Every structure is written in structure tokens, then in C-alpha cells.
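user: can you give me the structure for this one chain? C-alpha cells are fine.
assistant: on it. calling the predictor now.
[tool input]
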Amino acid sequence: MRALLRFAEGEIACSRALDRAMRLGDVADRLDAAQAQGVGIDAGIALDAPEAVRLVSAHSSKGLEFDCVYLLDADDSTWHRGASSEGVYPSNLLFGDAKDEDDARRLLFVAATRAKRNLELYRAQGATLRELSEAISSTEIDTDPLELDAAIEADWHDSYRLDTPELLALLDVKTDVRHLSASSLNAFVTYEQGCVNSMRFPERQVLRLPEAPSISLEFGTIVHAMLEDLLNRAMGEQQVPKDQIIAVFRQQVAWMDFDESSVSRYLQRFDRICDTFVPWMFEHLGVGRRIAEKRIVTATLVGTPLYGCLDLLLIDDEAKTVRIIDYKTGFTYEATPGYERQLAFYKLLVERSGEFEGYRVASLADCYVEPAKDTDELHPPIETAPTEEDVRQLERLADAVWTRIESGTWDTSAFEQSPQYEKAIEAQSTCRTKKEKSAVMQQAYEDWLMIKE
């Protein structure tokens, strides 16, 4: 598999000729061409690396042992087909030796006893293996593709859940969590019933398990990179033609490896950004000193390490002020509580950093880069100006959260037995909307965290 991946990576330049990202069919075509030309693929790699996954047949597994074994096609009809014909192989592979029922049972015994700790059997059709029908529990999964995908993802994430003291003890906070970012702060403090937000924090923010590809996230990343390049190269000293830069990033959108209709739709969104927001950016953000994609590492007064990457800083060195610009893709023109907390965090970052000592953050603005669908007009930037008290409260909250992270105290469920929680429940009875109720509980949760600190 590694050899195949290396081969595919070596051929990835072909995606430029294809005018899109490479797909599995393209790799197969390249393999066919390599075979026709007599070009070999070096597969001389070690297969016994620690923690490696081994793909073996039941027959060849004899004499081996593994911590975990996953047995595929473990249904009765497939497994016992060998008793009268081909064995546990696809029907297009013909083997002449007929096997009896005892052979099938012996082979099953070999396969099942390779597992030292965990054995899982999977079947896509048919009944549970007759030999195991009374010995194992079976879970049926809906065959709807979307529901099946969700079930697999949930099962996969659950297998990595740090739900015992022994598993939590494996985390080395000083190594695994080096600083507090706006996103990690929001992940910890954004209240969910049962305090799931903090108890799932190690899996969501420390382990950071891979997520399914998201076209909206990939698109947002490309747009942010283009705006940074325009600021640095087209609006900077190099004076690179903006159309040249736009063409490079438009090609990246075209190469996104999603279905053609979705990619076409996002290409249209990209073009609308270039037709509306890019001219606005050249007109309004082209004066004074600018720093795009600014990374800042600093600390609170008590030493909580902070980190952030800010889309754009507009700096007035004479007045010693900084304006913070944060780009937003999408069509939700609203500053959520979490987003307001993020902007206050950015203000704290800049004003605490040594590089901007003596500077003051004059304003923070959300710049929506996509025009409205119905009017093709840009939404005006939403500017906020957190007060000094807002920043002090956020700093206290950051310190409280960092104290819990350092000590591995992820469980905040005691909040739901606290007086703050009871008062919030009572206050919610007078709220008219779900949003108001959520804001009341959120504030109570943050107050409780800071009091516990």
C-alpha cells in the first residue's frame, strides 16, 4: 500500500494535465501504463513495523497473533461455501479441492484465535456464522448509505473515546497541548447539555481525529490563501498582476476532489468573490502597514500560553493602533457568541504580545467575502469593540480553562448540580427564545468555571 501511495504521489503532477485532482481511476490507468511499459513499482518495504496493520487471509494467519483482528465477510453462507466448492475466496477464483464442514470450522478457529485482545466480525449479507451465533452479540446497521456512513464514523470515534482514567492518563498535556487558541477555548467553554463540551475536549482538541473531507472547509482555506497572496504580492512591493494570482487559486478550486456539480457551484462562488470582494479589498485595505496571516504567541498575566493566527492586521504606527480583520466565507451574516469571544481573544493576543507593546486594538471587523445570493452585493463588515472589562473577563476564563487542561480536569458536570445552574434554569423560564435561553445558560457556565478557578 505504501509503495502504491508513493507511486501515486509521484504521478500527482499529472493532475495539472487532467485539469482536476487525480482519482482512483486515474491511478489505475497509470498502473496499467506502467505495466505495459515494463516499469516496476518498488514494494520492498518492511511489513513488520510496530503498530502496523496487516492484511492477511485466514489460511496465511496460522501461527500469527495480533492484539486486534477484524474478520471480513463473516457470514454463514460465504464462510461455509468452501464446504462444497471454492472456499473463502471470491467466486472468480477457482480451486479444485473440495472442503468439508470440518475444514471450514478449523479455518474459522484459526482466524478467530489470532486475536489476543479484540475480535470483530463483519458481514454485509447473510446470517451470523452458525458456530458463533450463540456466542457473540450482533448489531445490525441500516444499509442507507448516509446512515451507514454516520454509523461507521460514530463507531470509529467511539473506539478512541478517552472514557477511563487509564486512557486519560496517557495524555501528556505539556506535550500534547502547548497553548490555548481561540478555537480550543471555544470548544471547552461552549456549553452542551451534560457538559459534553469539556468531557469530549481531549478527543476533539487533543487527539484531533481525522474528519471527513468538507468542501466548504477546503474552499474557505483556498479563499483565505488567495486573499493573503493578493495582499502580499499584488498589493505589496512585487506588484504581481492580481489576475495571475486569481487564476492559480481558481485552478485549486477546480481541482477539489468532490463531485463535479458541487465543484462547479463553488467555482461560481469563487468567481463572485473575485468580482466583488477583491475590488473592495484593493480599495479599502490597501493603505498603511498590513500584515496578513499574522501568527502570535504570547501569554496571559498569570502565564497561560496563548496562540492565534489573524487573517489581517491594519497597523497605524503613528497612532499606535491596530485594526483586526477576520474573513468569513458563507452567507451567515451574524456574529455568534463564540465568534465574539474569538475576536476578544484576538484583541488580547495583540495587546499582550511583545511585538505590539504599547499598541491598542482600535476595532475588530468580520469581513464577509461572499456577496448576497439575491443581490450580488457585499454585506457591510460587522465591527465590534470589546471593552477592557470584556478582555479581562476573557483572560480570567482562559486562565480557568488552562488550569483544567493542565491538570486533566475535563469533567465539568458538577456545574449541573451547582447553584449557578439552578439559577440559570429559573432565569430561562422568562426567556422568549431558544437563543436567549442558551445565552443565559452559557453565561452561568462561564461564571461557574471562573469561580471554580
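assistant: here you go. The longest helix spans residues 260-284. Strands lie at 66-71, 115-121, 289-299, 305-316, 321-328, 360-368, 382-384.
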